[in-house]
Amino acid sequence: MEIFRIEQSKIESVDFENLAFGEVFSDHMLSMDYEYGHWMTPHITPFGKIEVFPSLCSLHYGQVIFEGLKAFYAKGDVINIFRPEKYHERFNKSCHRLCIPGMSYDLFIQTIDELIALDREWIPRRKGCALYIRPFVFATESYLGVRVSKTFRFMILTSPVGAYYKEGMNPVRLITPGEYVRAVQGGLGMAKTPANYAASLLPAEEAHKKGFTQVLWLDGIEKKYVEEVGTMNIFFVIDDELITPALEGSILSGVTRDSVIEIAKDWGITITERRISIDEVLSASREGRLKEVFGTGTAAVISPVGEIQHEETLIRINDGKTGTLSQRLYDEITGIQYGEKTDKFGWCHSI
Ligand SMILES: *Cc1c(COP(=O)(O)O)cnc(C)c1O
Fold first, then answer.
1. CA 255 / ligand 1 centre spacing (Å)
2. Would residue 252 count as lying in a domain?
3. CATH number, domain at 123?
4. pTM score of the predicted model
5. CA 121, CA 117: separation in Å to the nearest integer?
6. Segment 137-190, tens digit of pLDDT
7. Which is the closest atom of ligand 1 to the Cα of 233?
8. Rg of the chain, C-alpha, whole Å
């Protein structure tokens, strides 16, 4: 690996008490090109601009994938990276769907480890804060024909991020997207690729204008079954059953989703992965059986849902407050990440 260090760190100029999400980047970034059918030597350089031709194919046709994971400062100065194997598995799945070459776990984790070790001072020490790690790959040939590129660039950026919930967990308000759909089975919903986000921008803007935090996505065919919330997976507690939509091709397999499922099983909670219609959610609410709803994702970990608007109906969940299971799951996952709870599943990669 080639490393070109910055001369003067910019860390002094960063206000670690008021970190927003993804606005500040650490001193270095990693780049690795794919040429002649294989990944070349990675190099680390100061964070900065990259030069591309305006004919860069990925700007025009979106042959891009990304990942998002986190590193934490745990007790005893240990750095914990949460479940990198699982993120790598999804990285390769996304690559496959977008005709991008994948890579071995060894190469993936080696590039992350090197960059994190170099910029370790950028990992915030406060509980609730973390260093967000953003690996991504984009096609690098310059042409306007629609075909698979022969060359690619893999990059990793890291960004210190603050506590998602500054004043404790704040339940969000959701609205179903009416005429819009995000993904369909056989499409790109199972891949972590910018196209899914592009599809979500206009519906999200309209939801914000109506006073809602996020869109509750329904399936693209019948517009009946719940799929995801914004950029998170979703869970419902009905009676004593924890339910999450099954992965049927249009839903992203969230690592946080998987962690919640594993922990719930371990706690002896009935967890079912199945289709769940918006009508079932509304009638469970009417019957007083809908106890909690929460989203899961790397950024927020657990995001409680306080209200859902579907067509003419507005339902309120748990009186708009964070549910007990939501809180317990949040405490467990973050406890493992910060090395405060036993990592019985062996999820943390420590450096
Ligand atoms: C990243 C992402 C999620 C959450 O996945 P995590 O691995 O838990 O961060 C859910 N849905 C979409 C569309 C995503 O891009």
1. 7
2. yes
3. 3.30.470.10
4. 0.97
5. 9
6. 999 999 999 999 999 999 999 999 987 776 667 899 999 999 999 999 999 999
7. 10
8. 21
